């Protein structure tokens, strides 16, 4: 199973005590968080790694995907700057 957001391969989420702190642990995420009116219905949930789920917090899936996309652009920008010194995005 891969994380809906980052695509990372996940590991089963439960240890014997039902608690795990592994970032790659598989969790169920509400695309629209409950606190923002999201439902508990199946079509509002996706499987996400614990790291993404925790970081996403109260953002909706769309908002969090924008954040991830923005980070990718920043990384690319930094990379281009190492090749083209006056690169401006
Ligand atoms: Zn993830």
CATH architecture descriptor: Orthogonal Bundle
Number of strands: 2
First-residue to last-residue Cα separation? 35 Å
The main β sheet shows up as: 2 strands, antiparallel
Number of helices: 2
Percentage of residues in strands = 5-15%
Integer average pLDDT? 90
Low-confidence stretches: none
Principal-axis shape: extended
**Mind telling me the C-alpha Rg?**
16 Å
Q: What percentage of residues falls in helices of 4 or more residues?
A: 25-40%
List keywords for this structure.
single chain; 89 residues; alpha+beta; DNA Binding (I), subunit A; two-stranded antiparallel ribbon; 2 strands; 11% strand; extended; binds zinc ion
């Amino acid at each position: 199973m891969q994380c809906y957001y980052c695509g990372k391969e996940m590991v089963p989420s439960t240890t014997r005590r039902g608690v795990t702190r592994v970032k790659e642990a598989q969790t169920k995420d509400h695309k629209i968080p409950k606190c923002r009116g999201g439902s508990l219905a199946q079509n509002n949930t996706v499987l996400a790694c614990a790291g993404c789920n925790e970081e996403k917090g109260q953002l909706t899936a769309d908002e969090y995907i924008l954040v991830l996309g923005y980070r990718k652009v920043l990384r690319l920008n930094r990379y281009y700057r190492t090749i083209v010194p006056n690169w401006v995005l």
